[in-house]
Amino acid sequence: MPENDDPKPRSKLRGRAAAIGLTKAQVIAAALAQIDEKGLQAFSMRELARSLDVSPGNIYFHLGGAKEDLFAEISGALTASVSENIDAGMPWQDRLRQVFLAYRDTVGTHPNLAPMLGAQMKSNGVANLAWVETVLGALGDAGYHGQALRDAFNALIGGLGGFITMEFAPAPSEKAREWEELFAARVAAIDPELYPRTHAVLPELSNRIFVLRWQNGTNVSYAGGYELLLNLLIDGLAAHAPRGPDTSSPTDTTN
Questions:
Q1: Which of 71, 214, 229, 243 is the most buried (most CB within 10 A)?
Q2: What's 48's domain CATH number?
């Protein structure tokens, strides 16, 4: 049969037949590429399906019944990557430092994801368990358990994740250039009589600190502040580590 007589050309296979061979990893990679290019707000399941030459139903078949399932898998893929090659024999402080520095580097390559990772619960899910396991293991070795473990975990994730969410916060999507110029002008015009301390250090702080900036971490590095926060949290956890046995341990045989 001549090639042009093929009754089912590839471009028309958009149902389950087109999904044969499609993997979760391919769906995640395609979704991440779309978010990298167009931003989180412009993400479209229909466009994702078109890019993979399948129907939207096939995306849900692979990843669950809602867009939130896909976002959780994207988050999980990123957090799993930062947990790889962590030496469990390293001191717990070094493990935390390594995994959270890697997390910032990873988010920095996909800054459009930052709002989802830090500020939206739809990125939550069991797909993040590799990261959770690594952090809990380090905190357990530091002596944290029970309520103290929960508080320490939330302090790390909230503090460092929140920092990254702010660092890569998106600028206005419309008239971005005009907004930047207007904001820069307003910062430069800060009244020295009303705000003398702020005005005195404007050359060092302008567009370099949260609140008084018009560019995010893709243009201006906040590595120094992040590493300071990470070290402060780790030092604080070491200083406040509980003293005494882990009474919540599954091997505890006391009554």
A1: 71
A2: 1.10.10
How many domains does one find in the chain? 1
Q: Please state, in angstroms and rounded to a whole number, the distance separating the CA atoms of residues 231 and 143.
A: 18
Nearest in space to 63 (alpha carbons), one of 90, 33, 26, 93: 26
Using a 10 angstrom Cβ sphere, with 0-12 exposed, 13-18 middle and 19 or more buried, the burial of residue 168 is buried
Distance, CA of 191 to CA of 198 (rounded, Å): 9
With beta carbons less than 8 A apart as the criterion, state whether 39 and 29 touch.
no
Rounded-to-integer distance, Cα 57 and Cα 70, Å? 13
Q: Are 168 and 109 in contact (CB under 8 A)?
A: no
The residue written with tokens 């044969």 in the block is 20
User: Does some domain include residue 19?
Assistant: yes
What pLDDT sits at residue 121?
67
**What pTM, to 2 d.p., does this model score?**
0.81
Q: Which domain holds residue 24?
A: 11-65
Place of tokens 């600028």: 171
Specify if 30 maps to a domain: yes
Tens of pLDDT, residues 50-89 = 999 888 888 877 776 677 788 888 888 888 889 888 888 9
